[in-house]
Amino acid sequence: MTDISLSQARSRRLSRRSGTALRYLLVVLAAATMVVPFLWMVSTSLKAPGSVLTIPPQIVPESPTLDSYRRVAESIPIVRMVANSLFVTVATVLLQLATCAMAAYAFARMRWRGRDVLFLIYLATLMVPGQVTITPLFILVKELGWTNSYQALILPAATSAFGTFLLRQAMISIPREYEEAAFLDGASHWTIFRTIIVPMSRASLATLAVFSAMGAWNDFLWPLIVLNDPDRMTLPVGLSLLQGRYTNDWNMIMAGAVISVVPIVAAFFVAQRAFVNGMVSSGLK
């Protein structure tokens, strides 16, 4: 009887270890599918011209060189475009954090007639593709005389229905005893929002900051439509100028892609812990 029980225990342990090993293997394979393209992009950007399409392919360049990055800087005003993208991204993130946080506080912590109905209508705008609104938005921007300007890039993205939903979910989870005690001490809604709700929603604010920064930094279609001055072009639009009509210099294109990706990857790693905590506190998966 004891031998049978020991055999069953060994079988269960072996089964658990096999299941754990299989899960780790799947995680590693999933990570590889996401990491390998980035590694290939960096490898291509460091290869010498003419060695991109060699057979067999060179995963590690035989003679790494930064010549592609130099040629990118000579072909387009890369520093100016990075500065434009950085300015637009920072302004968009700050505006989204401010507007979404205040709207989320109104929907989550204040009681007023029609609140839930209005929130559902506001949330329903998430089902409207952004491409549908481009034409009327461009007409509005043109009538205001904002074409080829920074405000045309920043103000249309100054708020976000998804950001409001994300912060509302986080603010709902904050116990009401904090604000009730503050009200007894004579605090106003603005004081409670600034000193209690916002500090306790830092993780979700960091999550929204990462999402909005990625969207603003990588946005291509809207800047392509509203801009025609190279001095105002953002990085994604500028990198499109590297593509040739008949042939492509893949070394230069990959070098430009690396320049575009590195800031977003760095921002994510800086806010990684807050990003995960924000996703957990908001109930999103």
Total strand segments? 0
Helix fraction, binned, reads: over 70%
End-to-end separation in angstroms reads: 46 Å
CATH superfamily: MetI-like
Instruction: Kindly identify the CATH topology.
Output: MetI-like fold
Average of per-residue pLDDT values: 84
Helix segment count? 14
Order of helices and strands: HHHHHHHHHHHHHH
Under the CATH scheme, the architecture is: Orthogonal Bundle
Runs with pLDDT <50, length 5+? Answer: none
How would you classify the helix and strand content by structural class? mainly alpha
What keywords describe this structure?
MetI-like fold, 0% strand, 285 residues, single chain, mainly alpha
What do these coordinates show?
The chain has a single domain (78-282), classed as MetI-like fold, CATH 1.10.3720. It has 14 helices and no strands. The longest helix has 44 residues, at 2-45. With 285 residues, it is mainly alpha-helical. Helix 7 (161-172) runs antiparallel to helix 10 (202-218). Helices cover 71% and strands 0% of the residues. The chain is flat.
Summarize the helices and strands and which ones pair or pack:
Elements: H1 2-45, H2 67-75, H3 78-109, H4 115-124, H5 134-143, H6 150-154, H7 161-172, H8 177-184, H9 189-200, H10 202-218, H11 221-226, H12 235-239, H13 250-270, H14 272-282
Helix pairs in contact: 1-13, 2-13, 3-7, 3-10, 7-10, 7-14, 10-13, 10-14
Give a quick precis of the structure.
The chain is 71% helix and 0% strand. With 285 residues, the chain is mainly alpha-helical.
